[in-house]
Amino acid sequence: MSRVLIIDDNEGVCSALGMLLDVHGIETCSANDPKAGLNRLAKGNIDLVIQDMNFTADTTSGEEGVELYYRLRKIDPDLPIILLTAWTHLETAVELVREGASDYLAKPWDDVKLITTVHNLLELREATQLAKENDSERRTQQNKLAQSYDLCGLVYASRAMHELVSVATRIARSEVPVLITGANGAGKEKLAHIVQANSACADGPFITVNAGALPQDLIESELFGAEAGAYTGAGNARTGRFEAADGGTLFLDEIGNLPLEGQAKLLRVLQSGEFERLGSSKTRRVNVRIVSATNSDLEEAVARGEFREDLLYRLNLIELNVPPLAERPVDILPLAQHFLADKRTLSAAAENALRSYPWPGNVRELQNCLKRAALLTTDPIIDVADLALKLETKSTPSVDIDEETINEALGRNGGMVARAARELGLSRQALYRRMDKFGIPK
Ligand SMILES: Nc1ncnc2c1ncn2[C@@H]1O[C@H](COP(=O)(O)OP(=O)(O)OP(=O)(O)O)[C@@H](O)[C@H]1O
Ligand SMILES: [Mg+2]
What mean pLDDT comes out for the span 285-305? Predict the structure, then answer.
């Protein structure tokens, strides 16, 4: 049950408001001066305050109201506060709304408008409280995960990454191959390390082969090794990466670039653990966990005849998809702070800019951006200009903001739409539209 605290020196106002709210099923309590109001709030169990702006009979400046407002705010930074003010003093009230008060109503108030405002604010209060609880619930789960597994320093706050890492750590101990998909710089290799670190072969080697960086005719000898003279330029026998990875993990990066011949051999190792070095007929056996990664669509490559379908089905028994950074904007600031790695902070404007930038290069681009900014400025506070972002996306974010981000911004700002909108770099109307879209109560 929600409870509204009315703070007004006029007993008549308190009882009139009390009755009006009571008729609409809202419990109230009242206080006749600021001190009593503050005491009542400190006791707890208050979801909204309606406060007067003047408390001494002969004052009309509104200063008392302003002071009360800030003191209430201090006790509960998220509390919705409605200001009741004489219409001749609207300016002070508007000023406070800019500072974060929820709304103001001119005396004499309009009953319907007052009830609507109170209802909306209480609903939002409930929703943001719930979002906060979910938030802390998720943090608890995240802590648990970090205690039970080695997350290799992975930084995240989003639900999407939490789910992904939960699955990754859960399947890590099995021996099945894992295929990690995702855009450039999203964190595929990082996730591969997490799989290895929590696998039965955690103490074994972690060997990387980047099929995208090797000339196609060298990939096979790189993977399987070659006897001396097996191909032009092969002076000495060489050990392949499969042998090097024995007892550990072989990370096949850019697997889509493996030529068909290499794919056939890879399929055979996956089926039997057996292979031969180039130029040799001696069969070798290894015990290697395969983790592969790609940023291309392997199904499409199969359709084009460039990738073996049977190999794909072997590799993607478990597929882990790392979402692009733009789809998990709540990760941006924690990652940014992590990459700053020192006592420097970001200005509010810089934070907004980072949050609304689309990050086509994902986490790696964010990392580069902050490292560059940290080198270029010696200021303790990093500002927008230091970030040198290519696009000014503040007024028209090209990433559409998701429900989670909106709920969190509302939560951080005590349900105050104007403030949350400012933080998200949106107009108030634009935020309302998005709240409508997601069915977030106003
Ligand atoms: N959640 C994260 N927390 C901390 N560091 C991260 C995170 N995600 C990525 N990184 C870091 O960002 C950089 C890029 O990540 P990574 O190399 O794993 O991406 P990738 O998907 O393999 O990229 P590419 O497609 O270019 O190969 C690395 O330095 C990595 O350590
Ligand atoms: Mg990579």
Answer: 94
